[in-house]
Amino acid sequence: MFVENCEQVTCRLFKSGAGEFIFSEVMDLKELLSGNEAIARGAYEAGVTVAAAYPGTPSTEILENFSRYPGVYAEWAPNEKVALEVGIGASLAGARTLVAMKHVGVNVAADPLLTFAYTGVNGGFVLVSADDPGMHSSQNEQDNRHYARFAKIPLLEPGDSQEAKEMVGLALDISEQFDTPVMLRTTTRVAHSQGLVEIGGRSPRELRPYKKDPQKYLMVPAFARLRRNALEKRLALLKEYAEKSPLNFIEWRDKSIGVITSGISYQYVREALPEASVLKLGMTNPLPEAVIRRFAAGVKRLIVVEELEPFIQDQVSAMGIAATGKGFIPNSGELDTGILARKFSEAGILKPPVKTAAEGSARPEAPAAPGRPPVMCPGCPHRGLFYALKKLKLTVTGDIGCYTLSGLPPLEAMDCCICMGASIGAAHGVSKANPAMSGSTVAVIGDSTFLHSGVTGLLNMVYNNGSGTVIILDNRTTAMTGHQHHPGTGSTLMGTAAPAVDLETLVQALGVKRVRVVNPLDLAKTQAVLREETTAGEPSVVISRCPCVLLTRAAKPAVRVEKDKCIGCKVCIQLGCPSISMQDRKALVDPVSCTGCGLCVQVCQEGALVKGGDADA
Amino acid sequence: MLKPVDILMVGVGGQGTILASKILARAALETGYDIKVSEIHGMAQRGGSVVTQVRLGEKVFSPLIPAGGADVVLAFEKLEGLRLMPFLKPDGAMIINEQEIPPVPVLVGAAEYPADIIEYIRSAARHVVAVDALAVAEKCGNVKAANVVLLGVMARRLPFAREVWERALAGCVPAKLLEVNKAAFAAGYEYKGI
Ligand SMILES: Cc1ncc(C[n+]2csc(CCOP(=O)(O)OP(=O)(O)O)c2C)c(N)n1
Questions:
Q1: Residue A451 CA to ligand 1 centre (angstroms)
Q2: A599: which residues sit within 8 A by CB, 6+ positions away?
Q3: In the predicted model, is pLDDT for residue A16 greater than 60?
Q4: How far apart (Å, rounded) are the C-alpha atoms in residues A438 and A469?
Q5: Helix (H, G, I), strand (E, B) or coil at B49
Q6: Nearest beta carbon to residue A32 from set B25, B42, B47
Q7: Is the dihedral of CA A77, A78, A80, A82 positive or negative?
Q8: Do A372 and B66 touch (CB under 8 A)?
Q9: What is the CA radius of gyration of chain A?
Q10: Among A70, A73, A598, CA closest to A384
């Protein structure tokens, strides 16, 4: 195989480990790292000193890992927009800076991003956008490569952990050389797959000196117009760079098929079409047009393989180059080697793959396997609140967090979920559109989500004379993404103590007069308070306060079943607690996983469920 | 030339699949393999199934094992083993724990836990080892070492030396739990199931 790139052959840079893994010599320099760990390592090695983020799968571990390196500062911001703005300030002050978020986080941060593209940087700046094709843990699968093109900033796409690490350093170099923020776009399979990574040392950086320069940093129309021109000039220079960058390289093999690909798709292409020539694009905005033309001219048939949108393909077509890809490769969900092999053979490009026994007739028909959807944990305080909401038959506009699981059976106690923070505006809109629904509609929102983007929604409800009830599920953590701190927890990412925002005072300051606090594990009280507040006819906040059961781990003795009292009515089952099942028409409580939260004891009308430790009745 | 090996591990959150994959990766690394491991976090942590894909070879590209491509499926829970059958190679090995963890649809009576999983798998796969790993681990002194019992069962079928496994185990578990885990690994390694 002949590897070509446009300036010099830097095989090592992006082909390290390719069949030349010398065990004894490099063993101690290579570590098995996830893409996220590699990005953190890359940032550390490249001299990043400031990083900010809001958690979100699959990006969260970047900051968690980065914050553990010596000599760096890292923080959780309350949302992605603030994280980006903190990063802009750090870059302005001359530090190499990294900001990370999941794909939908970039929607929240898009406002500063699109103008930051105008001002450019002082210290190198990289924005990591972690996309989630296949929606493993997201509400949509938007392709954020479009953001880089939209903002007119360089875009790098790593395909494994080694590239992820190296591309962070390269992104920072590009950022400083061209005076621009750079986007590094990963996907779940890059972020959460582990591969061997060569570990290097840190090259420390001095802060670049700060110089006041309003024409560059003060984006009022007159200056922004100047920067608008600068943006186009920069883009032209970046195009030249892309033509020569070792990030984009050609592997000439059989020339009857040539594949242009990027990111994780490269790995699938190498397995599904090992003989094909490949143009691997590590930098996908702006595209290296001349390289693409040369590659296209060298192959008989040109195919673009990319996950999600035809981002590269559409641009190649617009160059007037005949290319296929999305005609037969799906534009939703993840790809993999098997999908590519199948799609290429269906399109008549590859011979049909050998049938596996699974697909062949060799195996008898399998018994149906019931699904295993994610559920709230045993002892989760959210369960009590949603059980109460269900009993009261309320319309519930929802939000995102562990509590969104309440929308699934058996609780089915949430009506909608759009994006972080949407619950409050939505509840207000419902009651403005249909006043008859207003006394029976509530918004539910987690504590981390409320501080992320719920505060303004509540402010709006008060300001516009709404009368809704907002329930803040204060479990003292950002549970869904793995228990990160937030401004209400009293601690920071670096482990230092911090002032914890007082939610009661905060919502009162917004103008809410009715503020109630309930323990969601006390069902009767919770229901009574909810009834009062939903009928109050004025804005009201109920803070449902109980720490996440995984935080405290202080389990009480497990609930016992008094078998002779159990009538098999299955009321307890309706809680959707994984510790409760039915055996021989009687309730059964798993003593290992039960945390003794006592909800099932409260719903049982027969007294058959008894708190552990209590004497027999 | 190192023989490529593709291994799928599946279980339910909290069963210790992650430790098992760590030990495996360490043993593979010492043997000189290139490695890719893919694990999906997020929703899977909330009681969903947890799948870890481990790919070993001279040079590994994709972190994902295609359908019909797994040399070994190591199932920490019976239903999850059934679910991953389509990934097993025709001549691959299914190592399956007999433990049942009913998912919520079964708990609430919306679905039934299949009664005859092991029988089906025996009829459909060429190499099957079914283990009551909880019982074996309990005999070794701690039910929580069931994951290491299962790893031991798999270990004998992989091309690494036993000492390599033992070193990897020692490198991944805390010192005070090492004895129990060594016993669990040995019990799995020497397990005579069919
Ligand atoms: C814009 C955006 N950023 C991040 C996420 C990822 N995410 C989903 S829910 C959530 C926070 C959940 O915390 P909280 O509201 O406290 O609820 P909990 O999970 O603790 O119940 C996060 C960070 C997202 N979906 N959208």
A1: 10
A2: A383, A384, A387, A521, A523, A575, A577
A3: no
A4: 9
A5: strand
A6: B25
A7: negative
A8: no
A9: 28
A10: A598
- Confirm if A573 and A580 have CB atoms less than 8 A apart: yes
Strand partners, B39: B52
Torsion angles phi and psi, residue A257, rounded to 5: -125, 130
Q: C-alpha distances in angstroms, A383 versus A404, A410, A548, B103, B113?
A: 11, 11, 11, 17, 24
At A427, give phi and psi (nearest 5°): -65, -40
**DSSP 3-state assignment of A187?**
strand
Q: Is A549 on the interface with B (CB under 8 A)?
A: no
Res. A18: pLDDT tops 50? no
- Dist. CA A259–CA A250, nearest whole Å: 10
Domains identified in chain A and CATH numbers: 11-244 (3.40.50.970), 248-346 (3.40.50.920), 381-492+499-552 (3.40.50.970), 560-610 (3.30.70.20)
Q: Which of A:119-148 have CB within 8 Å of B?
A: 136-137
Pocket of ligand 1 contains residue A487 by CB under 6 Å: no
The packing angle between helices A337-346 and A265-272, to 10°, is: 60
Confidence of residue A105 (pLDDT cuts 50, 70, 90): very high
Q: In DSSP terms, which residues pair with A518 in a beta bridge?
A: A544
Domains with residue ranges and CATH for chain B: 5-189 (3.40.920.10)
- Distance (Å) of CA A401 to CA A472, A517, A577, B7: 12, 20, 18, 32
Give me the residues paired with residue A63 across strands.
none
Nearest-CA residue for atom 4 of ligand 1? A56
Mean per-residue pLDDT for B6-22? 92
> Which residue is listed with tokens 């649809």?
B105
Report strand pairing: B49-57 vs B5-12.
Answer: antiparallel
Does the pLDDT at position A614 exceed 70? no
| Side-chain-facing half-sphere of A602: CA atoms under 13 Å | 17
Write the CB contacts of A382 (distance below 8 Å, at least 6 apart in sequence): A376, A402, A403, A405, A406, A473, A475, A520
In this predicted model, what pLDDT tens digit does every residue of B20-55 receive, in sequence order? Answer: 999 999 999 999 999 999 987 655 467 788 899 999
Residue nearest to atom 9 of ligand 1 (CA): A401
pLDDT score for B31:
93
pLDDT (mean) for A321-327: 96
Quick check: A472 and A449 in contact, CB under 8 A? no
The answer to whether B129 and B191 are in contact (CB under 8 A) is: yes
| Subunit contact A364:B29, Cβ cutoff 8 A | no
Q: Is the CB of A105 under 6 A from ligand 1?
A: yes
| CA distance linking residue B29 with residue B164, whole number of Å | 10
Q: Can you give the pLDDT at residue B179? A: 96
> B82 and A369: CB-CB below 8 Å?
yes
Residue A356 predicted with pLDDT over 70: no
Contact call for A189 and B103, based on CB within 8 A:
no
* pLDDT > 60? residue B146: yes
Distance CA A99, CA A79 (A): 12
- Spatial neighbors of B48 by CB under 8 A, at least 6 apart, are A372, A373, A374, A375, B12, B13
Ligand 1 contact via A475 beta carbon (within 6 Å): yes
**Structure tokens that stand for B135 in this block:** 């019982």
Cα A399 to ligand 1 centroid, rounded to whole Å: 9
Alpha-carbon distance of A263 to A282, in angstroms, equals: 7
Residue B99: pLDDT over 50: yes
Per-residue pLDDT, averaged over A366-377, amounts to 91
CA dihedral sign of residues A309, A311, A315, A317: negative
Spatial separation of the C-alpha atoms in residues A47 and A70, rounded to whole Å: 11
Written as one letter, the residue type at A152 is K
| A216-275 per-position pLDDT tens digit | 999 999 999 999 999 999 999 999 999 999 999 999 999 999 999 999 999 999 999 999
DSSP state of A70: T
Ligand 1 centroid to residue A412 C-alpha, Å: 20
